[in-house]
Every structure is written in C-alpha cells, then in structure tokens.
C-alpha cells in the first residue's frame, strides 16, 4: 500500500471503526477532553459523527464526504470534528440518538450531530449525500449553513440548545410515579401476546412486512407464554408463531447456507435478501433461541441450526485467547483485483459459477441431471439472478443469487426422481464445494473489538445450547470465554467490568490507554451469562462472580429515587443525560434482562432485597408494560417470572454419579422459564451451602440422587426418578 496522504489522531486509537477514518483529510478527534477543550478555547461548534465498523451507510458517507479534500477543509476550518464508535461508547450514542429521533422522527447510523462547545446538540441527522440533490440538501451545504448560523446568531443558537436539552430531560425520564406496584402479569402477558399476534406475518413468520429482523426477544416471549398456557388455543398459537418464524428464517437468505450463521436482517418480507453484516449479538441470542425451540419441539431441525450458528462463531468470530469478536462487514471486494467493495459480494453466486462447481451427473436421478441442477432447484437459483431489482437499488446484486431454500427435501427429491434419503448428502456435497470456492474470495472486514456485553450474550448461547443439546464442548467453550472476560475485561482490584478490549499485533489482546469502564448492559449480559454457565456446568465459581457483579451493578447504576437502573454511571461531565433504555430491540434492554437476573440472584443467595428491586423495575416501567408491552417483550416475559416466583430445582447428589447426571439431563431437556437449577453436592463448606443454609436439611433418599422443587425456601417431597422429576417440572 502507498503511504497515506493524510493522518489524524485516530491513528492512535484501538477501535477498528476509528482506525478506518485515521487517514481522512478531516482532523478527527476521539471523544474526550482534548476535543472539548479545543472547542471551548476556539469557541467552535463540534461536529459529532457516530457509527460502527460494519455499517454500510457509514462507509458510503466516508467515501463521498470524509475522504473529500474540500469538504474536509470546510469541516476543519469551522468545526472540531469528533468520531465515536457507538459499540465502544453506547452512552454517548444514546444521548445524541435520543435527540436525533426526537427532532427528526427517525434515527440510524451514521449519525451526524452538531453541538455547541458545551456539548449540547442543536441540529442533527443521519446520512447526508455530499452535494444537494432534488430531494435532500447535501452535506457541504449543511456545513456552510450551520457555520454561518453560528457566526450570525450565536446567542439564539445557544438559547435554543438549552431548551432542547430541558425537553429531552423531561421526555426521557423513566421513574416510579407515586407508590406504584408491579403491573398485573396476566394482563401484561395477554396484551403483549395480542399485539404480537396482530403484527404476525402468517405466511412467512416474523412481526413486520419488511424489513424483517430476527428479534429473538419476541420469540422468547412466545415460548414463555406457551409454557404458561400449554393447554389453551392461545398457547398453541404462540408456539406455532415462534416455531414457524424460526423455520422460515433458517430457510431464508438471512441464514448463510454456505458459511453458517445469520445476517443482520432481511430487506424483504420473505427473509430472502439480507443486509449481509453478521453481528455477534444476533448469533448469541439466536443460538439460545434455536436451542429452546429444540427443547420444546424435539425437532432436530432446530438443534442443527443452533449447531450451525455455533460452528460459524467458533470458526470466524473467535479469538485464540477465548473471547469473541464483534462483527463481520457486509461489503467486500468481489475478486482479488476489484477496485471497489460491494455489499454481499462474499456471499452471492452467479448461476454459471454453481454449474461449473457442480457438474457431476447424479446417479439414479432422471436422465442428464447434474448435482448443479439439484442444488440450484433446491436453493432457488435462477440463470439471471434471483434478487428483485426493487431490493437492489445500487445494482450490486445484479445477475447474482442469494441462496434460499425454496422446496421441501421431499419435493426436490421427487422432482429429480431421487430417494429422499439421498438428497441431504447431495446438498451437503454442494454446500462444501461452494464453501471451498468462497474461501478463495477476499473476506469482508472483521471487527476484532471484543465487548463484555456481547461476549456475555454469546456465552449464554453456548451454555444454553450445551445444556439443551447435551454437548459438553459447547459448555467448555462458554467457560473459556468467561475465563477470558475475567482475565481481560474485569479489574479485580476495583471489582469492575471493562467495556472492551482489542486484538493487537501478533494476536495479543490489547487494552486502550484509558480503558472504557463497563456500562449497565455489560454487567447485565455478563451476569446472565454466568447464571446460564453455572446451570450448564454447575461450577460454583461462576455463581460467586455473578453475585459479586450484581452488587457492583447495584452500586454503580441503581436509581434510588425513580427506581430501575441507569444505562451509564454518574459522574461523567461530558454526558448530558443519564438514560434508561425503554425498548427491547435487536438486543434486549438491560433493565428487562436484569429483572430475571435479580430473581435468579435471590434464588442463589437468599437476598430478598433483590426480589424487591425486580418488582421496583417493573413498577417503573408499569405504564409502558400495560399499554405497549410489544416494545418490551423481554420485560413482559419477566413479569410472569416475577409473578410465578422462580422455582429452585435442587438436585442432591454426587456430581460424578450416573444417577445425578441422569437427573440433570432430565432438567436440561425441559423448557421451564421459571426455574433456577442448583446442585447440592454435600460440601457444607462450599459457596452454595454458605449462601443457602436450608440446603443442609435436604438429603439423598436411599443414597440415590434426589430432586427437590423449592419455592421461597419451602421444598416439595423428594423424588428420585427422572420420570417423577419430569412430571413435577411440567406441571
């Protein structure tokens, strides 16, 4: 590569997104005191640009505007320019996204916001084209107009920004009003089910027409709803909606049939043409959701998809030290000699490529059938490409095919006169050859930043799949990642989590000069992961760490006045607002997940105040949960867990004994949303016995592994056979 013409301060950062902009002609600063001081001293406005390294439109705006020398000069002359990676600093992103959504009615990335020197926003948007067009004003014009406004009307602008801030503070406050109690669980669950049912797509599954997102939070809500209403028609419909959605997603183009894992979302109603980036948080949540679908249905199809996701993550998103990388980009070079990247280039196929790779005649099929014929028929491949021009505005996918399962195996087999049993081997052979061919293509950019929160979601995925599918290697992988977090994203001296670490030169793990402290979501998703890992492995050390982190979370983020947790801690003067997320989206919101975490923590520790806190969070969100629970399906689910109280499933037995293992397999094979599993191994000096004195009174009956079902520390009669335990857990 030639020597870059420009270099700015971002060259010293660790974030892959910031490093992508280190050679723009823009004098970028990272978020921090140096930039704030410059703005104050020179009395300049701040231009804040927020994005992430696998964001398609962020790349477009960089190519068009931030690499443009003239635009760079306008930016440098009039503004202090700051770049933020939203995955490193979700707190900064959230403050200004709240502003952009409130003032423009929409939001997204790249986010472009102009701030006064004291960081108050006064105008903002998302992507701007470089020059004026018929329908939108160009970035150059916006920059010049805002610079002009600051010269001419500084005082009005400052006054306006103060008003905006006050309105935002008022709008974004979530607190208990008066003596509220948690909302009635039955009504919240019924309303949420109704709202999901009304927005459900009967044909293709999912809960919108297009674009379609995977939204594991919706599917997990439906599983819990089913578990509590198994015998009713609504319960049956909840399960059918969830399983049908998971089937359609797995057949669709959003699922990478050649390279495994799931893309971000589908641009159409059929789950066919995706935005091709792959995010760690989707893989983690979907692995857990497909494992639950298998637990409930017993259908191996779902187990296969869960394993497919974990194969992708183990191969492509795993650091050798044990952590998980954040994401893979959508854009890549079509060939090694291409000059520009295209979206989806790594994943799509021309029909003739597939024919050339799969020319073999198929024995026993209709005369003249090749492996290519069978493969192309099954995966909906067309000679002229199978992507509708409507879904390809930039013509990046013209003549290309996104694989999507178009037929059942029976239909494909019948079409070519094949035995149905032979088809899966033929398709597998086809997929392997395409994978080998694809491995020769230039890979998309990999974001090798490792985030505590997303690693937590992925650990849960491995741990839950390991338990539900009875695969020890997944539980071990989860434990390796948890040990990685303890080593690289935790400060034992302060007891606090860190947000991020990075893959450095020669594959070492690096930390930034000033490490970013963990946010609420880091604590919540890591604590959830440690509970999931304890249940899968029964290693008490994970439990002990989870409870320590829960105490730290309470100390840093709890709002004693209005209840619930703030997303970021107090004391950062550069953050204008301390917010509470109020939406379960691509990731569940931290307050939603923490309700169940607190109930689990109370089960393992006997600390009653954690149950009280869980109720207070539900009270703080009470109005939203009663009116539009569809925006908080994970919290709606938690109202049911709170209402039915968690059952402690205690197995008394020798961890190595076959009878104990059989009882544990029975517990792991059942989907039961309101249980906390624990093993009483008889070691009175162990962590659990010290936390829960009542365990000492439970004994093994006739020397056999014995199960008790306890609620609020009162226990059922002992059972010693998996059949009896199964009956108890399902009743």
What does this entry show, briefly?
By secondary structure, the chain is an alpha+beta fold. Helix content is 47%, strand content 10%.
Give the helix level as a range of percent. Answer: 40-55%
Give the N-terminus to C-terminus distance in angstroms.
Answer: 66 Å
Number of helices: 27
Structural class determined from secondary elements: alpha+beta
Total beta strands: 21
Q: Report strand %.
A: 5-15%
CATH superfamily of one domain: Glutaredoxin
Read across the widest sheet, the strand sequence of neighbours is 1-3-2-4-5
Largest sheet: 5 strands, mixed
Low-confidence stretches: none
- Indicate the CATH topology of one domain: Glutaredoxin
What is the mean pLDDT? 95
| CATH architecture field of one domain | 3-Layer(aba) Sandwich
Rg on CA atoms, Å: 27 Å
| The top level CATH class name of one domain | Alpha Beta
Overall geometry comes to globular
Protein name: SPT20 protein
GO biological process, one term: carbohydrate metabolic process
Organism: Corythaeola cristata (Great blue turaco)
């Amino acid at each position: 590569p030639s020597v870059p013409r420009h270099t700015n301060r971002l060259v010293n950062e660790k974030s892959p997104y910031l490093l992508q902009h280190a050679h723009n002609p823009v004098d970028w600063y990272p978020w921090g005191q140096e930039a704030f001081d410059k703005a104050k001293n020179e009395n300049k406005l701040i231009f804040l640009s927020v994005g992430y390294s696998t964001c398609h439109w962020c790349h477009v705006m960089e190519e068009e505007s931030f690499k443009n020398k003239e635009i760079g000069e306008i930016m440098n002359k009039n503004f202090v320019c700051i770049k933020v990676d939203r995955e490193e600093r979700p707190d900064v992103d959230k403050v200004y996204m709240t502003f952009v959504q409130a003032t423009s009615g929409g939001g997204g990335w790249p986010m472009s916001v102009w701030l006064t020197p004291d960081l108050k926003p006064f105008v903002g948007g998302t992507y701007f084209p470089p020059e004026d067009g018929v329908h939108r004003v160009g970035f150059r014009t916006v920059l010049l107009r805002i610079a002009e406004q600051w010269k001419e009307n500084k005082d009005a602008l400052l006054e306006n920004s103060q008003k905006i801030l006050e309105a935002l503070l008022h709008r974004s406050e979530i607190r208990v009003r008066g003596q509220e109690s948690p909302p009635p669980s039955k009504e919240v669950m019924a309303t949420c089910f109704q709202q999901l049912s009304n927005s459900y797509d009967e044909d293709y599954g999912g809960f919108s027409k297009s674009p379609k997102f995977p939204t594991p939070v919706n599917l997990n809500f439906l599983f819990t709803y089913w578990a509590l209403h198994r015998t009713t028609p609504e319960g049956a419909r909840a399960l059918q909606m969830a399983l049908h959605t998971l089937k359609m997603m797995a057949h669709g183009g959003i699922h990478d049939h050649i390279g495994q894992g799931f893309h971000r979302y589908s641009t159409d109603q059929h789950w066919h043409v995706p935005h091709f980036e792959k995010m760690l948080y989707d893989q983690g949540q979907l692995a857990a959701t497909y494992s639950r679908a298998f637990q409930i249905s017993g259908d191996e199809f779902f187990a296969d998809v869960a394993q497919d996701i974990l194969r992708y993550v183990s191969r492509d998103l795993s650091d050798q030290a044990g952590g998980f990388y954040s994401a893979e980009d959508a854009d890549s070079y079509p060939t090694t000699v291409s000059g520009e990247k295209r979206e989806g280039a790594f994943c799509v196929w021309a029909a003739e490529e597939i024919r050339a790779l799969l020319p073999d005649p198929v024995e026993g099929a209709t005369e003249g059938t090749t492996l290519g014929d069978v493969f192309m028929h099954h995966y909906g491949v067309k000679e002229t490409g199978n992507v509708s021009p409507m879904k390809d505005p930039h013509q990046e996918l013209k003549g290309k095919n996104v694989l999507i399962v178009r037929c059942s195996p029976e239909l494909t087999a019948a079409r070519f006169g094949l035995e149905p049993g032979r088809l899966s081997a033929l398709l597998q052979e086809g997929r392997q050859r395409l994978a080998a061919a694809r491995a020769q293509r230039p890979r998309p950019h990999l974001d090798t930043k490792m985030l505590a929160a997303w690693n937590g979601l992925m650990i849960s995925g491995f741990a839950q799949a390991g338990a539900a599918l009875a695969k020890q290697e997944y539980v071990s992988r989860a434990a390796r990642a948890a040990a990685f977090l303890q080593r690289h994203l935790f400060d034992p001296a302060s007891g606090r989590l860190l947000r991020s670490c990075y893959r450095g030169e020669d594959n070492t793990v690096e930390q930034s000069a000033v490490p970013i402290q963990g946010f609420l979501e880091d604590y919540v998703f890591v604590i959830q992961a440690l509970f999931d890992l304890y249940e899968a492995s029964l290693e008490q050390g994970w439990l002990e760490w989870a409870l320590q982190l829960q105490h730290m979370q309470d100390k840093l983020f709890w709002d004693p006045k209005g209840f619930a947790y703030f997303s970021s801690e107090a004391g950062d003067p550069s953050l204008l607002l301390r917010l509470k997320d109020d939406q379960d989206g691509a990731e569940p919101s931290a307050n939603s997940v923490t309700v169940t975490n607190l109930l689990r923590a109370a089960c393992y520790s006997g600390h009653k105040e954690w149950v009280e806190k869980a109720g207070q969070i539900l009270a703080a969100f009470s109005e939203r949960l009663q009116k539009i629970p569809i925006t908080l399906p994970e919290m709606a689910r938690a109202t049911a867990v709170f209402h039915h109280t968690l059952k402690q499933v205690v197995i008394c037995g020798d961890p190595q004994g076959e009878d104990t293992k059989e009882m544990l397999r029975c517990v792991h094979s059942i989907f039961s949303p309101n249980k906390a599993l624990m093993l009483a191994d008889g070691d009175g000096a162990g962590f659990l016995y010290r936390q829960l004195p009542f365990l000492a009174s439970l004994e093994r009956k006739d020397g056999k592994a014995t199960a008790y079902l306890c609620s609020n520390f009162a226990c059922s009669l002992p059972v010693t056979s998996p059949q009896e335990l199964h009956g108890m857990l399902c009743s």
